[in-house]
Design brief:
The complex is a heterodimer of chains A (331) and B (102). Chain A has 331 residues and is of the alpha/beta class. Chain A has two domains: 122 residues, 3-Layer(aba) Sandwich (Aminopeptidase), CATH 3.40.630.30; 204 residues, HUPs (Rossmann fold), CATH 3.40.50.620. Helix content of chain A is 39%, strand content 23%. Chain A has a seven-stranded mixed β-sheet, sandwiched between helices. A five-stranded parallel β-sheet of chain A has the order 10-9-8-11-12, with helices on both faces. Chain A has a two-stranded antiparallel ribbon with strand order 13-14. In chain A, helix 6 packs antiparallel against helix 11 and helix 7 crosses helix 8. The longest helix of chain A has 22 residues. Chain A is globular, with a radius of gyration of 22 Å. A four-stranded mixed β-sheet of chain B has the order 1-2-4-3, covered by helices on one side. In chain B, a hairpin with a 7-residue loop joins strand 1 and strand 2. Chain B has 102 residues and is of the alpha+beta class. Helix content of chain B is 39%, strand content 23%. Classes of the chains: A alpha/beta (331), B alpha+beta (102). Chains A and B meet through helix 2 of A and strand 2 and strand 4 of B. Chain A: This is [Citrate [pro-3S]-lyase] ligase. Chain A: Acetylation of prosthetic group (2-(5''-phosphoribosyl)-3'-dephosphocoenzyme-A) of the gamma subunit of citrate lyase. Chain A: It catalyses: holo-[citrate lyase ACP] + acetate + ATP = acetyl-[citrate lyase ACP] + AMP + diphosphate. Chain A: Keywords: ATP-binding, Ligase, Nucleotide-binding. Chain A: Its EC number is 6.2.1.22.
Chain lengths: 331, 102
């Protein structure tokens, strides 16, 4: 029995074998993977596991080889790889019936739906994140939340926050910490903070990896490729995590989102939230703020940046954001 | 030693223990143990980890230990390795470590 790497992008035969194996194990061969290994008995693939960034994925063991501790071997090999590339904190999705197995390998549950369990290992963990949130908690009753990428922060975002701030005693405004945007996380966070500094009842917080991240919701970042059914399952998980863990910690009773007429994934996400929140948590969908009959969006701002049309950007964003955009232009 | 970053040592293979250490500034030692022999040896494993941390003068740390039936010497070795990595310390002070075994 030996473990070796499967080069999915170069080894057609290996890829086919791997893909058939996963389908037999009732998993979808994912195309969002950085690194894949297989355990072989002679030339027969009997187990596999992959990594995408710091997420363990597509783990499966041949049923006739179970009870041989192969899962532990695969997870160990993936851990070594993660450590090598600098990750000490990593995530995993599995089916509810397998979560016990991973628990015995040191993974802790973050959230679960009927279809998925989301787990993590390493520090700082979810408990640390909740502690961090509690430190910023305000002791108010009627609280709202907004989660945004703010890539970059526009007047459309500002409108959403302003509306929520009228409705709620405290607005917890979460800015995505994920580094997969044109503007880096620190800049986005600072621009949001600056942009809402005149609203005394808004608290700006980071999402770390626990909201709409590539861990909780990978399809969000690959909108074109996202298969609707996968996005649906992920959206339910993300919404469940938010409702059960985040909203309850900060006594949040409503989440505000912008209407999304263009992106299918965001629309699926909004629908999933609505369903998951049920009657316990209110979902407020606001129409987009418009200028000259056209909705303001960060996508639009980025497109204008691409075209170099800076005069058209000015009315769409707060002054600080515009300053930052000009700074990027002059780089 | 001061814990500066996350680090781990060991595996979840049988007879081994995986020790993950993270910062816990000013809040003492927190040991979270998951062991296949928790009922029989849980207390002893915790004590061994705590004792090793004391010897290395680690005062604040979060420790996650996944034990698969490791012997005391293994527990100690894994804890030492994880602490050194977490402290960013590359040179192991063997002289000090050797004095523990007298």
């Amino acid at each position: 029995m030996n473990i070796r790497r499967i080069w999915l992008d170069r080894d057609q035969v290996g890829k086919q074998q791997w893909s058939d194996f996963l389908i037999k194990a009732d998993l979808i061969p994912d195309d969002q993977l950085d690194y894949t290994i297989g355990i072989y008995d002679q030339e027969k693939l009997i187990g596999t596991g992959s990594i995408f960034r710091n997420i363990l994925k597509c783990l499966a063991i041949d049923t006739s080889y179970q009870n041989e501790n192969l899962l532990s071997k695969i997870v160990q090999a993936l851990r070594e790889r993660l450590e090598e590339i600098g990750y000490q904190h990593y995530f995993l999705y599995t089916k509810p019936k397998n979560s016990k197995l991973f628990h015995s390998l040191g993974f802790t549950e973050i959230a679960a739906t009927t279809e998925l369990v989301f787990m993590e290992q390493g520090f700082p963990d979810f408990a640390d994140y909740l502690t961090e949130l509690k430190k910023q908690q305000r002791m108010t009753q009627n609280n709202a939340a907004i989660v945004m990428n703010a890539n970059p922060f526009t007047n459309g975002h500002l409108y959403l926050v302003t509306e929520a701030a009228k409705w709620a005693e405290t607005v917890y405004l979460f800015v995505l910490s994920e580094e997969r945007s044109l503007f880096d996380a620190k800049t986005r966070f600072e621009l949001v903070k600056e942009g809402v500094s005149h609203l005394s009842n808004v608290v700006v917080l980071p999402t770390r990896e626990y909201m709409v991240s590539s861990a909780t919701f990978p399809s969000y970042f690959l909108k074109d490729q996202a298969k609707a059914s996968i996005a649906q399952v992920q959206a339910v998980l993300d919404a469940t995590l938010f409702k059960e863990k985040i909203a309850s910690t900060l006594s949040i009773s409503a989440r505000f989102v912008g209407e999304e007429p263009f992106s299918e994934v965001t629309e699926i996400y909004n629908q999933a939230m609505k369903k998951t929140f049920g009657s316990e948590l209110k979902l407020v969908i606001l129409p987009r703020k418009k200028i000259d009959e056209e909705a303001i969006s960060a996508t639009k701002v980025r497109a204008l940046m691409e075209q170099g049309n800076y005069t058209a950007i000015k009315p769409l964003v707060p002054p600080k954001t515009f300053e930052e955009i000009m700074k990027q232009k002059n780089k | 030693m001061e814990i500066k970053q996350n680090a781990s040592a060991g595996t979840t293979e049988s007879s081994d223990i995986m020790i993950t250490i993270g910062t816990n500034s000013g809040q003492g030692i927190l040991i979270e143990l998951d062991s296949s022999v928790e009922k029989q040896f849980g207390r002893q494993i915790r004590e061994k980890i705590q004792e090793t941390l004391n010897k290395l003068s680690v005062t604040d740390a979060k420790v996650q230990a996944i034990d698969k039936g490791a012997l005391d010497c293994t527990i100690q070795a894994r804890t030492v390795a994880a602490v050194y990595r977490a402290a960013g310390e590359e040179n192991v002070d063997w002289q000090v470590l050797n004095t523990w075994n007298v």
